[in-house]
Amino acid sequence: SAIASQQKLGMDRFFLVLCCACLAGQAVSFSFFRDRIPNGYNVDHPCKTNTKWDGVGHLNQQGGGSRNAFGLAFYANGKQWNRTLCMKDSDGDGQTNGQELGDPDCVWTPGSTPKRTTGITHPGFKTPARNYVYSASDTTTLDCSGEITCQGLDAPDVKTLDLRMANGTAVPARTTTYYCTTFEVPFDQIYHAVSFEPILDNLNVIHHMLVYGCEYDDQKDVGAPGECDMSSGKCRDLLAAWSLGLAGQCSPPEAGVRFGNGTYRFFQIQVHWNNPEHKTTYTDTSGVKMHYTHKLRQYDLGMLWLGQFNLQIPAMTASTLATSECTTACAETLFSQGDINVVRTLIHMHLLGKSGRIEKTDSQNKTVVMLNETVYDYDTPKWSEHNPPVRVGPTDILKTYCEYDSSTKSMATSYGDATNDEMCF
User: Fold this and answer.
1) For the chain, first and last CA: distance in Å?
2) DSSP class per residue in 273-308
3) The pLDDT value given to residue 418
4) How does pLDDT run across 150-202, given as a tens digit for each residue?
5) pTM of the predicted model as reported, rounded to 2 decimal places
6) 110, exposed or middle or buried, with CB in 10 Å at 0-12, 13-18, 19+?
7) What per-residue confidence (pLDDT) applies to 1?
8) Phi/psi at 155 (nearest 5 deg)?
9) Taking the mean position of all CA atoms in its chain, how far away is CA 377?
């Protein structure tokens, strides 16, 4: 995914070059594992007050992706709580896992109440986190200096609008579901959206959310909330994206996503639910908080998808490479109104990927590597930031490379919306 901006105020392009690849043997988050440890739903965030760490066994707070020290120990112990795991000090902070999780005597069993239910600390990160020097090479330490925040959100001209699903929205009892809800946004003048922040309700099922701009401008064309395809109807212009592992989306200080009078009157929020347990009782009211202003910035911001739909990945194969090329003919169509400035890129794949790469080659045959992800993790997406921006125009060629590892899969895999299918964007 990449953010690109144009010189004139017009459709801001969030230049999304998504390349599908997935990491073989990656860790996948299952919320029901929290039922197998004491206080599994009550583990405090090591750096933040009044915040829980839902992915107890993962480096990612929301779950998914690489395991932390406790997650590795839990997995090695057969994914069960017993005296062996309880007596370990997984993070090396001088407290046993049992002491941190409220079971100091190692007597807790699933379904029972632990000896202590307050002051629960994280068994995978050193406690207290602020007393340890953060090191990127030591996964038992955390950087508590604070999260990145968007610039200018406290300005008096910036307003907020919550776009979220209705209370009690039922999650179907199937592994993969896409659900769409359409919202009318302010239309009295032109605005710039400058930030999209996730509002997360049910982390047991939500995997990602996409914000689309809709082509229609009549209320009667707005469909009722319901299940949808990944690309739905007249709402095709991707404006923002969130996935597990991402905090939200800030626009560059000089750009914003244009909407309002003469542009988008309706936004659509598409949610991807992953319910591998097929539970029938789940509901979700997740969505996004949009920050916007009437003071237009210098550039418009948008998102562009490039990639490969024709995927055929054979079974039991350690390396399969899929490629996609946007030739000069393609670029002439995409950038007919002028060059764009790409400010960040993101690669997107599912569960078989191994690596991904995105390149731009200009008319002088000079190649710029816009993203090179040698190890891709579906549950831990990473933005590749470009400062200064990478300029892309009608004479350039854009190439996407997706490598897959299907050595543990007994059946061939093709393109599809489900998590067990594949993508390359």
Assistant:
1) 8
2) EE-TT--SS-B---EEEEEEESS--SEEEEE--B--
3) 77
4) 888 889 999 999 999 999 999 999 998 999 999 999 999 999 999 998 888 88
5) 0.72
6) exposed
7) 43
8) -65, 145
9) 11
Those residues whose C-beta lies under 8 Å from the C-beta of residue 329, and which sit 6 or more positions away, are none
Tell me the pairing of strands 266-274 and 340-345. Answer: unpaired
Q: Are 369 and 361 in contact (CB under 8 A)?
A: no
Place of tokens 């990944």: 230
- So what's the pLDDT on residue 23? 27
**The dihedral formed by the CA atoms of 209, 308, 22 and 242, expressed in degrees to the nearest 10:** -20
Confidence (pLDDT) at 13: 40
CA 169 to chain centre: 21
> Beta strand pairing status for 299-303 and 255-260?
parallel
User: Around 74, how many Cα atoms within 13 Å sit in the side-chain half-sphere?
Assistant: 26
What Cα–Cα distance (Å) separates residue 267 from each residue in 1, 246, 259, 261? 19, 21, 9, 13
What was the pLDDT predicted at 9? 37
Query: DSSP assignment of 147-199, as one string?
Result: ----TTTTSTTEEEEEEEPPTTPBPPSSSEEEEEEEEE---SSEEEEEEEEEE
> Are β-strands 340-345 and 320-326 bridged in parallel, bridged antiparallel, or unpaired?
unpaired
* pLDDT score at 359: 96
pLDDT under 70: residue ranges of the chain = 1-31, 64-65, 129-136, 143, 145-148, 218-223, 230-233, 245, 379
Give per-residue burial for 264-274: e unless 16+ CB within 10 Å, then b: bbbbbbbbbbb
Amino acid letter for position 121: T
The predicted pLDDT at position 147 comes to: 57
Tokens 């125009």 map to which residue? 393
Rounded Cα distance, 404 and 376, in Å: 10
- Alpha-carbon gap, residue 184 to 68, rounded angstroms: 42
Q: Give pLDDT, residue 117.
A: 94
Q: Is 153 left (phi over 0), alpha (psi -120 to 50) or beta?
A: alpha
